[in-house]
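Quick one, tokens below. Sequence please?
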């Protein structure tokens, strides 16, 4: 599970996103993108994320999906597949620098916070989309370097927990993304409880 700040236009809280790649029983890739409130994420410190790099113009559409729990879509990404693809782009590309070599090195992107390879989680799902391979395979391979994207699940975490106390890796912020480095393992303080991102709320 990778953690990053979520840069949106209308969020009342500073928000985080969590991205998980796993596989279904058929062996196909499933990308899970969860959005929650930053105040409920312990284990990261102010300054961990660098506020620099690419941000998505589709962020308001994703916020609408979260606020409406998947029942509204009034943006230009007006079908479930295209909106889900935009959410995945945010998860794997947000914070990229022009000309940067970021593949497999998320700590070099802006807004990223850290990861935990052994976290357990439970989430409320707002969208569960199976992509049309003939429609998306080439685009996702070109845009994201991912040619195996099959299913995208979007929602809000109810809780996330670490199985051990030393599995959370925190990325240290630097003066810019070029000076950022990956820290070793440190004690995890990922809480048992998250609350979903919700417009107009401060809790």
């Amino acid at each position: 599970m990778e953690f990053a700040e979520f840069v949106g236009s209308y969020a009342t809280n500073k928000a985080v996103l969590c991205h998980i790649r796993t596989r279904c029983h058929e062996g196909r890739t499933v990308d899970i993108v969860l959005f929650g409130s930053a105040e409920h994420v312990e284990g990261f410190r102010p300054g961990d994320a660098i506020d620099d790099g690419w941000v998505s113009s589709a962020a308001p559409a994703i916020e609408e999906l979260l606020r409406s729990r998947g029942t509204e879509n009034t943006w230009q990404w007006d079908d479930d597949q295209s909106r889900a693809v935009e959410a995945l782009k945010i998860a794997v590309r947000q914070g990229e620098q022009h000309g940067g070599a970021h593949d497999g090195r998320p700590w070099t992107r802006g807004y990223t916070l850290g990861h935990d390879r052994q976290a357990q989680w439970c989430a409320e799902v707002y969208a569960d989309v199976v992509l049309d391979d003939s429609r998306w395979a080439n685009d996702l391979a070109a845009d994201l370097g991912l040619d195996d994207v099959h299913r995208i699940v979007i929602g809000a975490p109810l809780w996330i927990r670490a199985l051990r106390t030393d599995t959370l890796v925190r990325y240290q912020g630097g003066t810019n993304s070029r000076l950022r480095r990956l820290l070793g393992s440190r004690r995890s303080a990922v809480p048992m409880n998250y609350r979903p991102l919700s417009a107009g709320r401060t809790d």
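The CA atoms of residues 27 and 150 lie 10 Å apart. The beta strands are 2-6, 15-23, 29-37, 112-116, 120-130, 149-161, 168-172, 181-186.
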